[in-house]
Specification:
Layout (H helix, E strand, L loop, with lengths): L25 E8 L5 E6 L2 E3 L2 E11 L2 E4 L9 E4 L1 E15 L2 E14 L3 E15 L4 E11 L2 E2 L4 E2 L4 E12 L11 E15 L5 E14 L2 E13 L5 E10 L2 E8 L7 E9 L1
Antiparallel strand pairs: 1-2, 1-19, 2-4, 3-4, 4-7, 5-6, 7-8, 8-9, 9-10, 10-13, 11-12, 13-14, 14-15, 15-16, 16-17, 17-18, 18-19
Amino acid sequence: AFTAVPGDPEALSYNPGALAFARRASVSATYMNGLFDGNYGFLAAPVPLGRFVLTPACLYFNSGVIDLKYSDPAKAPETVTAESDTVIYLSAGWRPAPELGMGVTLKRVSLELAETVSATSLHYDLGILYAVKNGLSFGASYLNSGGNIKFERRGDPPPRTKKLGASYKFKVNPHSLSDWNTDLTDLDMLLSADWTRTDGEKGYCQGGAEANMLLDALGGKIVFTVRLGYMAGRDSAGVAYGLGLAWKNWNFDYSLTPSSALEAVSQVTAGYKF
């Protein structure tokens, strides 16, 4: 649930307005697998330029293989990739005021089905995020607008999606939790919630909670993060778990989404801030 979370590179897929709050240049790489033997990769590099943030990015998705049988008996069956997608992004975020972020993303989408037919289309995303000074933020976005995806003569509309979100980040005094004899020096919490609806589908909700603990260790400051998320209203509904570690300019994150209907999904992210 990143629609109203300011500054995170992951927000590019949720709300381009959120990236207007990126304070430092960074690069973030994500790999995910488990969707029917498929895999997904995402690379983003936000670059702040005054009140603007430019973010080039790319995405790759492979849905796994299928056995392709032809109606022509003379052609032998083949094992092919069911679907492979590539998306090239160029996103621009702007902060006309300290508490307001607006953004637009242009996307070149290339799809190939069963290694036989392909299509290319241009889409765009729009987003806005308002960050209240007390840690409360609100966001809204409209994703995948643009031309139809046409493989042959007939075109299909892209999955145009509306998103609304809210998040709240606040400090917690560790000594108020218990009298720990540890090196925990700071603790903050992030709560977030999203509502999403794609054209032709029912809307669904997501929520998440994140605890960031600042520790004195390894000769410096380490941020250890614990995450919990939940999705409702979809076949893949359920709980997701995550852990994160940030040390100096590096950050590493892992999440796991078990599912009774689908395979468990694992996601790994590594990032560096300049």
